[in-house]
TrEMBL record:
<keyword id="KW-0862">Zinc</keyword>
<dbReference type="InterPro" id="IPR037518">
    <property type="entry name" value="MPN"/>
</dbReference>
<keyword id="KW-0482">Metalloprotease</keyword>
<keyword id="KW-0645">Protease</keyword>
<feature type="domain" description="MPN">
    <location>
        <begin position="107"/>
        <end position="229"/>
    </location>
</feature>
<dbReference type="InterPro" id="IPR001405">
    <property type="entry name" value="UPF0758"/>
</dbReference>
<comment type="similarity">
    <text>Belongs to the UPF0758 family.</text>
</comment>
<dbReference type="Pfam" id="PF20582">
    <property type="entry name" value="UPF0758_N"/>
</dbReference>
<keyword id="KW-0479">Metal-binding</keyword>
<keyword id="KW-0378">Hydrolase</keyword>
<dbReference type="InterPro" id="IPR025657">
    <property type="entry name" value="RadC_JAB"/>
</dbReference>
<dbReference type="Pfam" id="PF04002">
    <property type="entry name" value="RadC"/>
</dbReference>
<dbReference type="InterPro" id="IPR046778">
    <property type="entry name" value="UPF0758_N"/>
</dbReference>
<dbReference type="GO" id="GO:0046872">
    <property type="term" value="F:metal ion binding"/>
</dbReference>
<dbReference type="GO" id="GO:0008237">
    <property type="term" value="F:metallopeptidase activity"/>
</dbReference>
<protein>
    <recommendedName>
        <fullName>MPN domain-containing protein</fullName>
    </recommendedName>
</protein>
<dbReference type="GO" id="GO:0006508">
    <property type="term" value="P:proteolysis"/>
</dbReference>
Length: 229
């Protein structure tokens, strides 16, 4: 059914203004961003199809859609250049909002914001990425740097490079992070060994390792909370 044929209080935009965004389903929120459908398909139906599970031709929900890269979006019928640009802009605005929050307060004043920030950056990658959140003496975010890609082991992540980036930013502390494309966030023995290697290397230049966060789509784990840092 076209949106114009829905009762006014059931139309996504009017419903949001009247009841707030939390009252809307994912497809309704996405329909507001997309604004229009395509020939023979209303915007709400388009939104529902985009959020469908991958085996049904969709992206697997909001997280899957917003983490899709430009090439994946370009191959999707119904997403022209304008819609693709809007979706990519939404994701980038989310990243920047969380980065601003982490730059203005100590990261452990808002641990969920740290996890959300890392989710937006790393969770949907198809390959492993190792990143470092570089923090000042008040544990506020200075920068995030992606340093290594591929299978992460003690031999593929070079402590010297991590130390050099910490010194470059005059960081007082760091949060280590990487993703598990497999979907599991349980740390491996290699993850534990790597954490201790980097912790020892950074201690030589008086930089503390506060945590090592592992993320996967829809999940994250703090190794510090597990007593592994």
């Amino acid at each position: 059914m076209p949106l114009k044929d829905l009762p006014p209080d059931a139309q996504p935009r009017e419903k949001l203004l009247a009841r707030g965004p939390a009252a809307l389903a994912d497809a309704e929120l996405l329909a507001i961003v997309l604004r229009t459908g395509m020939a023979g398909k209303g915007v709400l139906q388009l939104a529902q199809e985009l959020l469908a599970p991958p085996h049904q031709g969709g992206f697997g929900g909001i997280a899957g859609l917003l983490h899709a890269d430009a090439a994946q979006l370009a191959g999707t019928r119904g997403l022209g250049p304008a819609k693709r640009a809007e979706l990519l802009a939404v994701l980038e605005l989310s990243r920047r909002a969380l980065a601003q929050q982490l730059a203005e307060r100590a990261v452990f004043d808002s641990p969920q914001a740290v996890r959300d920030y890392l989710q937006l950056h790393l969770a949907a990658r198809s390959h492993e990425v190792f990143a470092v959140l570089l923090l000042d003496s008040q544990h506020r975010l200075i920068a995030m740097e992606e340093l290594f890609r591929g299978t992460l082991t003690q031999t593929s992540v070079y402590p010297r490079e991590v130390v050099l980036r910490a010194l470059h930013h005059q960081a007082a502390a760091v949060v280590l992070a990487h993703n598990h494309p497999s979907g599991s966030v349980q740390p491996s023995r290699a993850d534990e060994a790597l954490t201790q290697t980097l912790k020892s290397a950074l201690a030589l230049v008086d930089v503390r390792v506060l945590d090592h966060v592992i993320v996967a789509p829809g999940a994250s784990l703090s190794m510090a909370e597990q007593g592994l840092v």
